[in-house]
Specification:
Shape: globular
Oligomer: single chain
Largest sheet: 9 strands, mixed
CATH architecture of the domain at 23-279: Sandwich
Number of strands: 30
Enzyme class: hydrolase
Domain Aminopeptidase N-like N-terminal: 80-272
Organism: Xenopus laevis
Strand content: 15-25%
Structural class: alpha+beta
Low-confidence stretches: 2-63
InterPro entries: Aminopeptidase_N-like_N, Aminopeptidase_N-like_N_sf, ERAP1-like_C_dom, M1_APN-typ, Peptidase_M1, Peptidase_M1_aminopeptidases, Peptidase_M1_dom, Peptidase_M4/M1_CTD_sf
Helix content: 40-55%
Bound molecules: 2-acetamido-2-deoxy-beta-D-glucopyranose, zinc ion
CATH topology of the domain at 23-279: Immunoglobulin-like
Site (Transition state stabilizer): 472
Length: 963
């Protein structure tokens, strides 16, 4: 889902930034993805291959065998769609039965490839009008063709049309249908969304077709390879406006109704069709013969009054122009609309020419939004625009190759964003946001390869399950690695030839390898040890990634499948026995070089080191692997960091820390060596290494923040952060101006949140001062948006009831989602148990906190060490209520169990968790069942880890704070 299921990288990043006492990113990611999956599972019926369809069929079906074509999910290849004429008429008022509905008329034109008496076309949740007792009318030109029967196979979502006499190969037919569908608020197909403006509830009719929901808007051959052209007509009332993939070519009036026809689309997949009826306003231009029209759409208040679309408008055209050049292919459509929808389920969706976004992914308000919000807008816009070619013009043949579509867009979004914000160095951030983050997931024995077999992906829920962090972030990581070892000019040559070769058509992932190989064979400067396919197969056909270990005494380099839990058992077989073809770039004595590791083990003379030289492997973390060294080289690297860290590239400083902490978790490196990598950090001023250190240390915080270890850990953190605090205080003139670069702004945010959480006095005073100024009527908030999360939280933690009530009132008042989230999170920072208990009570009162935010509110209380046990008591006491509210449907339910048990590491806590499980067999745990089992496992692992390491960690922190 383009970013249909796009996960807010930033939301996750911010989670880490702001909750120092937090965040196992593994779980965070897994949960967000399973959210999307769970959502779809609600919609999708379980596969019922073995049952017959007689119960769901109407009229003519008799006893139907399970191997009938309509009992399979996939369409037969007998028919090939050519064109659709679709007219849709949404009613934006309730009908007599209290439903919002839409009426539709559609002609699907198709070519008969092979003679057949059966037409299978997708239709889901549509009530079809009957013609002579049939659910559709079949035409050959203007001549009606006789039917034998029609029925619905609801489970496979087909309208089945049986023809009296066989259709003939080579002939064109059209299937005419009229239907009524519900315009439900289910975020799928043609659906309804609502918002309040000027005290009036406004309705929007909009679409989300990916993955297989176009069939819920009109009958269609709903598979990505079934490309056709579409002529869309919308019927709607004034003062609404209509939009679709193409520009409008004609509008007529018919009584109360306006009828707008849109130009015929190019050949495209059904999942990219879009249309919207709304009262939205826009900024931007219409375009003409020479210039592509670019517009940003949204609520009138956001677009016209508050000008929240200006930032998106300023970046969209440059990004579109960049991709035209990068792909060497003109933008295929005359216009590109970007639409911000209130309460959009996904992050964004790359509908061709009519991209839809969640408001937070498109709108930006200088006065309220932080730099993180801005990064999110520019990267999501770039991601969706990247798909306009890669995905929309050239489309995967079937969903099993989704990773190529999403991985590619998730890589080039950084290139597009870099074009729009050239001063940000945003390309570096892929290492934190994608590479390191997905490695945490991909290092588990339960991971899976990028590819899956076409025949293994059939049902809607199997399709939804593909939209996960492996597809997006690992896909992006390996494509980035490929682009780097080919060099960008070669990569771009191959890419352009791939796009040209398959425009308006479909591909499998290896088609891209073929075209890249042609680009390689076309020149001599870049030599590969093996064909691209052979190299890439090792990265896409097996799960996980290697840890490359170099012994600088012998020059021996080895690779081994990296597993975060050394006790885990890998049961999934691999065609390469978990060996990879590894591109190894490295630096010795300031010189860069590279080799290929093609075997399990090799000896490389260049890796033998004498003296004080150090070897640094995987420059800028281009390769998708972790690196370990012999002790001597670790020590030489650590010495270099201590003496002059700037000689180690900034991305590699983050890598050294992240690798060390992960190797320690996997018991491949001593825990104190991992901690040693943070010693030099007080001298570093860069975001990436600091972020790596904070996320490495967050596990220590979770395990120890309620134990005697924490005293010295806190002193250590304070000692490390103070120089950074002084630095930023200086460069920001006492926190009054923001640093220029993106990463410096993030680093400033990290600095303040770390300093304030570890009680740096000056930080606490600074936060209180800003907050107190705000508390003076008329309550003007002059706190910079970047600093708000930390200032709010710190002030509430330091303050009492008055501060809390003040923030609560602001929370009730605001109608800006980004601000409401910041305020709500801060409400959980109080140190007063009774206030935290009150917040917990409020979380279940939907007049106070929206139901969708209940679980995340309880989770933020958990993040607070004082709130931890209160929240656990609360969850146990209210389990039945929580279960009835969220248990059956909500993904976030599993998240809740994970969060509430995150700090558990003692036998006592383990017992409590088991007791909780036993006490609640009725009602049970619903969607949280798996999370509960995982929490029990994790508590055991935490207990073992704490037992093994507590003494050493305590001693390390005590030594580290000695003067
Ligand atoms: C479709 O038909 C069913 C059964 O008659 C009915 O319950 C449902 O409300 C109808 N849907 C719409 C959108 O009219
Ligand atoms: C909005 O509507 C409510 C209820 O109808 C009314 O009490 C309130 O005064 C209205 N507010 C404004 C600003 O019109
Ligand atoms: C097309 O639109 C652009 C921007 O609005 C304008 O600068 C240009 O002159 C127009 N060209 C034509 C041929 O109308
Ligand atoms: C082959 O090289 C020529 C000249 O550099 C270039 O124009 C052409 O696009 C290349 N073809 C491919 C498939 O990369
Ligand atoms: Zn995408």
């Amino acid at each position: 889902m383009g970013k249909g299921f796009y996960v807010s990288k930033l939301v996750l990043a911010v989670g880490i930034i702001f909750t120092v006492a937090a965040v196992s990113t593994i779980i965070a990611l897994a949960v967000v993805y399973s959210q999307e999956r769970a959502k779809n599972n609600d919609v999708a019926k379980p596969p019922e291959e073995t049952t017959t369809t007689s119960s769901t069929s109407t009229s003519t079906a008799t006893t139907v065998q399970s191997n009938d074509p309509w009992n399979k999910y996939r369409l037969p290849t007998t028919l090939k769609p050519i064109h659709y004429d679709v007219e849709l008429q949404p009613y934006l008022e309730k009908n007599a039965a209290g439903l919002y509905v839409f009426h539709g008329k559609s002609s699907a034109f198709f070519l008969c490839n092979t003679a057949t008496d059966l037409i299978l076309i997708h239709s889901n949740k549509l009530n079809h009008t009957k013609f002579n007792n049939f659910d559709a009318k079949l035409m050959e030109g203007t001549k009606e063709v006789a039917l034998k029967g029609t029925f619905f196979q609801k489970d496979k979502q087909f309208l089945v049309v049986q023809v009296a006499e066989s259709l003939q190969a080579g002939k064109e037919y059209s299937l005419y249908t009229e239907f009524i569908g519900e315009l439900a608020d289910d975020l799928a197909g043609f659906y309804r969304s609502e918002y309040v403006e000027d005290n009036v509830t406004k309705i929007i009719a909009t679409t989300q077709m990916q993955a297989p929901d176009a069939r819920k808007a009109f009958p269609c051959f709903d598979e990505p390879a079934m490309k056709a052209t579409f002529s869309i007509t919308l019927k709607y009332k004034k003062p609404y406006k209509a939009m679709s993939n193409m520009q409008d070519i004609e509008t007529k009036t018919e009584g109360d109704w306006m009828i707008t026809k849109f130009d015929k689309t190019p050949k495209m997949s059904t999942y990219l069709v879009a249309f919207i009826v709304s009262e939205f306003e826009s900024i931007g231009n219409d375009g003409n013969d020479t210039v592509t029209g670019v517009k940003i759409w949204g609520r009138k208040k956001a677009i016209v009054d508050e000008k929240q679309g200006e930032y998106a408008l300023s970046v969209t055209k440059p990004i579109l122009d960049f991709f035209e050049k990068y792909y060497r292919t003109p933008y295929p459509l005359p216009k590109s609309d970007q639409v911000a929808l209130p309460d959009f389920s996904a992050g964004a969706m790359e509908n061709w020419g009519l991209v839809t976004y969640r408001e937070t992914a498109l709108l930006f308000d200088e006065n309220v939004s932080s730099i993180g919000n801005k990064e999110r807008v520019v990267t999501v816009v770039a991601h969706e625009l990247a798909h306009q070619w890669f995905g929309n013009l050239v489309t995967i043949r079937w969903w099993n190759d989704l990773w190529l579509n999403e991985g590619f867009a998730s890589y080039v979004e950084y290139l597009g964003a870099d074009e729009a914000e050239p001063d940000w160095n945003i390309k570096d951030l892929i290492v934190l946001n994608d590479v390191h983050r997905v490695m945490a997931v991909d290092a588990l024995a339960s991971s899976h390869p990028l590819t899956s077999k076409e025949e293994e992906v059939n049902s809607p829920s199997e399709i939804s399950a593909l939209f996960d962090s492996i597809a997006y972030s690992k896909g992006a990581s390996v494509i980035r690695m490929l682009s780097e070892f080919l060099t960008e000019p070669l990569f771009v040559n191959g890419l352009a030839s791939y796009l040209k070769g398959f425009e308006y058509d479909n591909t499998v992932y290896s088609d891209l390898w073929t075209h890249l190989q042609m680009a390689v064979d076309n020149q001599t400067a870049v030599q590969l040890p093996l064909p691209i396919k052979d190299i890439m197969d090792t990265w896409v056909l097996q799960m996980g990634f290697p840890v490359v270990k170099i012994d600088t005494a012998t020059g021996i380099v080895t690779q081994k499948h990296f597993l975060l839990d050394p006790d885990s058992v890998v049961t999934r077989p691999s065609p390469f026995d978990y060996k990879w073809i590894v591109p190894i770039s490295f630096q010795i004595s300031g010189k860069n070089d590279h080799i290929w590791l093609q075997k399990e083990s090799d000896t490389v003379d260049k890796f033998k080191i004498t003296g004080n030289d150090w070897l640094l492997v995987n420059l800028n973390v281009i390769g998708y692997y972790r690196v370990n060294y012999d002790d001597n080289n670790w020590n030489r690297l650590l010495n270099q960091l201590q003496s002059d860290h700037k000689l180690v590239p900034v991305i590699n400083r983050a890598q050294i820390i992240d690798d060390a902490f992960n190797l320690a978790r996997a018991k491949q490196l001593g825990i104190t060596k991992a901690l040693d990598t943070t010693k030099y950090i007080s001298a570093d001023r860069e975001y990436m290494p600091w972020q790596a250190a904070l996320s490495g240390l967050s596990y220590f915080t979770q395990m120890f923040d309620r134990t005697e270890v924490f005293g010295s850990m806190k002193k250590y953190m304070k000692k490390q952060v103070i120089p950074l605090f002084e630095h930023f205080k200086n460069v920001t003139s006492n926190w009054t101006i923001r640093p220029l670069s993106l990463t410096d702004q993030y680093c400033e945010i990290n600095t303040l949140s770390t300093a304030c959480s570890y009680d740096v006095e000056e930080c606490l005073e600074f936060a209180s001062k800003l907050f107190n100024a705000w508390m003076v009527p008329p309550f003007t908030n002059n706190i910079h948006p970047n600093l708000r999360t930390n200032v709010y939280c710190t002030a509430v933690a330091q303050g009492g009831e008055e501060e809390w009530n003040f923030l609560w009132d602001r929370f009730q008042e605001t109608d800006i989602a980004q601000e409401a989230d910041k305020l709500r999170a801060a409400l959980a920072c109080s140190k007063e148990p009774w206030i935290l208990n009150r917040l917990l009570e409020y979380s279940l009162d939907s007049t106070k906190i929206r139901r969708q935010d209940a679980v995340s509110t309880i989770s933020s209380v958990v993040n607070n060490p004082i709130g931890q046990s209160l929240a656990w008591d609360f969850v146990r006491a209210n389990w039945k209520t929580l279960y009835s509210m969220f248990g059956e449907s909500s993904f976030s339910f599993g998240n809740l169990i994970e969060r509430v048990s995150r700090r558990f590491s003692t036998d006592f806590e383990l017992e409590q968790l088991m007791q909780f499980k036993n006490d609640n067999q009725n009602p049970g745990f619903g969607t949280a069942s798996q999370a509960l089992e995982q929490s029990i496992e994790k508590t055991k692992a935490n207990r073992n880890w704490v037992n093994e390491n507590k003494a050493a960690v305590k001693k390390w922190f005590e030594d580290a704070i000695l003067p």
